[in-house]
Each structure stands twice: as C-alpha cells, then as structure tokens.
Amino acid sequence: MNAEEYVAAHPKRHRVDPLLGLMRQCSRCEEWWQATPDFFVRGHKGDPLGLHSWCKACTTEYSATRRLFQQRIEHAHGGLLHRHFVRVADDGAIEEHDHR
User: Fold this and answer.
1) Confidence band (pLDDT; 50, 70, 90) for 13?
2) DSSP letters spanning 66-92
3) In the predicted structure, residue 7 carries a pLDDT above the cut 70
4) Residues 6+ away with beta carbon under 8 Å from 49
5) How far is residue 80 from each of residues 40, 48, 66, measured CA to CA in Å?
6) Is the CB of residue 33 less than 8 Å from the CB of residue 41?
7) What is the separation, in whole angstroms, between the first and last Cα of the chain?
8) Alpha-carbon distance 89 to 39, whole Å?
9) What is the overall mean pLDDT for the chain?
10) Closest by CA position to 29, among listed 13, 45, 15
11) Handedness of CA 75, 76, 80, 83 (dihedral sign)
C-alpha cells in the first residue's frame, strides 16, 4: 500500500507531504511528524504501520513525568508503591489511587 492509499484509508490523522512523504499527527500534542520510527514509537499492534499514536517526544515526556510522581509517592509512603498507583492524564492532571 502506498502513502496515498494509506491516507485514503486512514484520513483522520494522516496526510502526504510532497517533500517529506507520509505524515502523521500526534494524538497528544497534535503536531505533524513523518510517520516513521524516527518520530513515533514502534510496536503498536493495532496500527497498520505498527506505530504508536503519540510521537516520541510526548511518550518520553509522559514516561518521565509518571516515573517522577511514582518515585515521590514511594518515598512519601515508605516504599509502598505496590499499593499506590499514579495516572497522569493527557492534560497533565495527576490522579493518585490508594488500593488498600
């Protein structure tokens, strides 16, 4: 399947740039990037290209933020991280869940 056929089949967040080829819009930051593993994380089985819907920058930022807050909660609760879970929403809001 060439780029034009792919965009026709998946028009929502894809377009073809005459110079850069197939482009994909990150579903988190909404920036347009080349639809390649250079800009998107590989390994998403539900996507025909095998790429995640978030760009690498958004994925890295989310992971770093989540890891930081998990470390803070672990420290604050005496190492009981297995009982506390943190979710960072797309808008940056942080939700803490205590599963005791």
Assistant:
1) confident
2) HHHHHHHHHHHTTT-GGGEEEEE-TTS
3) yes
4) 6, 24, 35
5) 34, 40, 16
6) no
7) 51
8) 22
9) 78
10) 13
11) negative
Contacts of 54 (CB under 8 A, 6+ apart): 26, 27, 28, 29, 40, 41, 62
Give me the residue label for tokens 């920058």: 57
Q: Are 14 and 49 in contact (CB under 8 A)?
A: no
**Amino acid identity, residue 80?**
L
Rounded to whole angstroms, how far apart are CA atoms 30 and 95? Answer: 23
Retrieve residue 92's tokens.
């940056």
Q: Which residue has the tokens 């197939």?
A: 22
- pLDDT cut 90: percent of the chain above it: 27
Tell me the chain's radius of gyration from C-alpha atoms: 18
Query: Could you give the CA distance from residue 46 to residue 54 in angstroms, rounded to a whole number?
Result: 13
